[in-house]
Write a structure and sequence with these properties.
Helices cover about 95% and strands about 0% of the residues. By secondary structure, it is an all-alpha fold.
Length: about 60
């Protein structure tokens, strides 16, 4: 293997490492976003249940 080929492989490996780190970082951000969406959905479900009760009370 030539020195030039070796240098190119080192550069390519560094780029792959950087890309992997970016992917891991994005995955962590998506986990946080999913948790937030789950929380928001639960809050909306609770509010919907409260409104159903309020509507039933108003119907009487």
């Amino acid at each position: 293997m030539k020195k030039n080929d070796s240098d190119e492989l080192i550069i390519a490996n560094r780029e792959i490492v950087l890309q992997s780190e970016e992917i891991e970082s994005r995955a962590a951000e998506l986990v946080i976003a999913n948790k937030e969406l789950l929380f928001q959905n639960e809050e909306k479900e609770n509010r919907a249940a409260e409104l159903i009760i309020a509507n039933k009370e108003l119907a009487f």
